[in-house]
Amino acid sequence: MDQDQFQQQHDIIGESVEIKEIVEVIQQIAPTDITVLITGESGVGKEVVAKAIHHASQRTHKPMISVNAGAIPEGIIESELFGHEKGAFTGASETRKGYFELADGGTIFLDEIGELPIGTQVKFLRVLESGEFMRVGSAVPKKVNVRVIAATNKDLESEVRNGNFRTDLFFRLRSVNIRVPPLRERREDIPLFVHEFTRQISEKNNITFGGITDEAMEMLKNYFWPGNVRELRNVVESMLIIERGKRIDANSIQKYLREFQDNHRNLPVYTHKTPEQAERELIYRALLEMKSDIMELKTILTQRQVPAETVAPHYVEANVDTADHETGERFIPLDEMERRMIISALERFNGNRRLASKALNISERTLYRKIKEYALD
Ligand SMILES: Nc1ncnc2c1ncn2[C@@H]1O[C@H](COP(=O)(O)OP(=O)(O)OP(=O)(O)O)[C@@H](O)[C@H]1O
Ligand SMILES: [Mg+2]
User: Fold this and answer.
1) 284-373 topology per CATH
2) Does domain 3-181 have CATH number 3.40.630.10?
3) pLDDT tens digit sequence for 167-219
4) Dihedral over alpha carbons 139, 143, 146, 150 (to 10 degrees)
5) pTM, 2 dp
6) Mutational pocket test of ligand 1: of 19, 26, 47, the residue with most ligand atoms within 8 Å of the beta carbon
């Protein structure tokens, strides 16, 4: 099959050399059982690559099970991956298969592999080497036929240096590494993405697309895209839905690009920064934004001490704030504050959990737990 057909079949958009090279590698390795490590920033399309590998392989009629190692609490990760025997631990009332058994014959996609606890890594390495593992609470090895694709947005090499990632596992995984470059390193793909996304989104939502001026397209091409393809898709979607058939020009596009939204605050613009600089600036902005959120909350709290009807800010949800009738003070429950902060951090970073967790000064795993807890996913 030629490359274009292959890309069409697997929904891989892109005509840059970078994408073409990735597609070539996918085509070469898909039919084998070789373990693949996919690296790249959040939103670059790692899962798109993983799916293409699975679907272009013999295993396509068997399941591809996606597991996010960062989202599973450490305490249960082994039983999730490898299963457990009845009675293996408190609460294990039934024998349960883990993801490796469920994926037998197919593919397991282990996302955020950098979050795998160090103790579990050795067991994972064993599955990679021999296909063998043991359910928690069992001493009998089981064997599965599973193709492993792992992904991470972390720099595993520095994780190895910091002692968070086993060297042997790192080398085992690294034998085939597909690095998906950030969108800003393949800007020539941007018009194609815009074209495809406008087509898909306008079709799906039954809206017409009024076109885009060259100047506006140039701005899209020059933007930094910290959230990569996912962010571009979101921008195109909001643009289409809000502008409803109007032609998008340089002026109207600014609303949708963070760089321009933030300009009036005299904050640094991150167009030509290194990823590290850009990340630091994003965090800095998020902190400032949170500070202003807190100020806003403070204002609400003080305003709320005068009769509600004189202020009644529209953004106060009555069912959330609890009044202390004794003192007349109003409080927002801490968990509600937390929930709001998490939402605002996630919005700020376009759903990038790594950056959001940094800004909130909690671990990515804790953030995942809280996202689940507050049902924000
Ligand atoms: N080359 C591409 N062609 C078509 N769509 C793409 C491509 N790259 C990314 N996308 C789209 O961008 C979004 C993000 O892609 P994906 O989920 O694969 O990213 P990711 O690298 O796994 O991100 P994360 O690290 O946050 O999990 C998805 O909607 C996906 O369909
Ligand atoms: Mg992903």
Assistant:
1) Arc Repressor Mutant, subunit A (1.10.10)
2) no
3) 999 999 998 999 999 999 999 999 999 999 999 999 998 999 999 999 999 99
4) 30
5) 0.74
6) 47
